[in-house]
Every structure is written in C-alpha cells, then in structure tokens.
Amino acid sequence: MAANPAARKTWGGFAPSHRREYCEWVAEAKREETRDKRVAQAILWIAEGKDRNWKYKSC
After folding, report:
1. Which of 14, 34, 49, 56 would disulfide-bridge 29, Cβ 3.0–4.6 Å?
2. Maximal CA-CA distance, the chain
3. What predicted TM-score, i.e. pTM, was given to this entire model?
4. Is residue 14 part of a domain?
5. Distance (Å, rounded) from C-alpha 10 to C-alpha 57?
6. For the segment 5-43, what is each residue's pLDDT rounded down to a tens digit?
7. Distance separating alpha carbons of residues 52 and 9, to the nearest angstrom
8. Residue 2 pLDDT exceeds 90
9. pLDDT of 46
10. Taking CA 11 as the corner, what is the angle to CA 7 and CA 15, rounded to the nearest 5 degrees?
C-alpha cells in the first residue's frame, strides 16, 4: 500500500470494522498465490474508496 497514496489515504479514513474485513479476507486465503491476488485486488478497491462488501450495498 506504500506505493499507492490514494489507497493509503483511504485506508487511514476507514473505520476499524472496514479494515478488519479486508484483513480477515486476505488472511483466510490458504495459498500464497491467493493471498497475493487478494492483496492486489484489495489495494485497487481501497484506492477507489470501496469497502470490502461494496458489491452488496445496492441490493
């Protein structure tokens, strides 16, 4: 996240529950490849200002 200032700024503004959701999502991956993929995806979503379950907000 150090290489992406937008993600770092958004992360700082997230509530602890939003941070925890991202951390748990990454940590529950069993394979290293999956964790790396989730970290990359999370950084993109965080840079856009999206919380972990942004897809389900409009339902």
Report:
1. 34
2. 33
3. 0.84
4. yes
5. 18
6. 999 999 999 999 999 999 999 999 999 999 999 999 999
7. 16
8. no
9. 92
10. 155
Residue 38 lies in a domain: yes
Q: What is the DSSP letter of 50?
A: -
Q: How many Å apart are CA 59 and CA 54, to the nearest integer?
A: 10
- The confidence band for 59, taking pLDDT boundaries of 50, 70 and 90, is low
Place of tokens 């770092």: 8
Tokens 């503004």, located at residue? 13
Within the chain, where are the H helices? 5-13, 16-27, 32-47
Range of the domain at 9: 5-53
d(CA 3, CA 21): 22
